[in-house]
């Protein structure tokens, strides 16, 4: 949580890594979080400029992804996103009616899975400033 009323750096960094991964030209390795890019604008980028991912979104994808510090973070978020997405879909197919996202940050699942979550209760929990933002 930021004292300045902004969300945590972690929420911004994680969304930025998902956003960059969603720009991967190859659909077989593209991060499925197509909504993350919409969450990172100039104000959010300004809060993470000291991290390699902080300037990666302004670079050519091929150039940015070849930076080892960026590559590792983007791939970590790809694996994490796909794993959680798959488990969410499986749980809903098996009858789950509620989704609780702890430390939600800039999670986009409620938006990306709106159709299959339409009959479920979705609860996102995070710091007040992140939730308000």
Folded structure, characterized:
The chain is mainly alpha-helical and 133 residues long. It contains 8 helices and 2 strands, in the order αααααβααβα. Helix 1 (9-21) packs across helix 5.
What order do the SSEs take from the amino end to the carboxyl end, as H and E? HHHHHEHHEH
Beta strand % = 5-15%
Helicity, in percent?
Answer: 40-55%
Main β-sheet: number of strands, strand sense, barrel status? 2 strands, parallel
- Mean model confidence by pLDDT: 93
Strand order of the largest sheet: 1-2
Specify the number of helices: 8
| Uncertain residue ranges | none
Task: Label the structural class.
Answer: mainly alpha
Overall shape: it is: globular
Measured distance between first and last alpha carbons: 11 Å
| Annotation, overall tally of beta strands | 2
Evaluate the radius of gyration. Answer: 15 Å
SSE layout and pairing:
Blueprint lengths: L8 H13 L20 H5 L5 H5 L4 H5 L2 H26 L4 E5 L6 H4 L1 H4 L3 E5 L2 H5 L1
Parallel strand pairs: 1-2
In short:
Helix content is 50%, strand content 8%. The chain has 133 residues and is mainly alpha-helical.
Give me some keywords for this one.
mainly alpha, 8 helices, 133 residues, globular, single chain
């Amino acid at each position: 949580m930021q004292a300045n009323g902004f969300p945590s750096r972690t929420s911004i960094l994680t969304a930025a890594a998902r956003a960059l991964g969603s720009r991967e030209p190859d659909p077989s390795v593209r991060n499925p979080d197509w909504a993350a890019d919409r969450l990172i604008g100039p104000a959010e980028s300004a809060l993470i400029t000291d991290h390699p991912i902080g300037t990666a979104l302004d670079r050519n994808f091929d150039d940015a992804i070849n930076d080892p510090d960026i590559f590792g973070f983007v791939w970590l978020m790809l694996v994490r996103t796909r794993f959680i997405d798959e488990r969410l879909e499986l749980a809903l197919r098996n009858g789950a009616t509620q989704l609780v996202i702890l430390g939600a940050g800039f999670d986009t699942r409620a938006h990306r899975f709106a159709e299959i979550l339409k009959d479920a209760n979705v609860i996102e929990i995070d710091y007040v400033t992140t939730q308000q933002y």
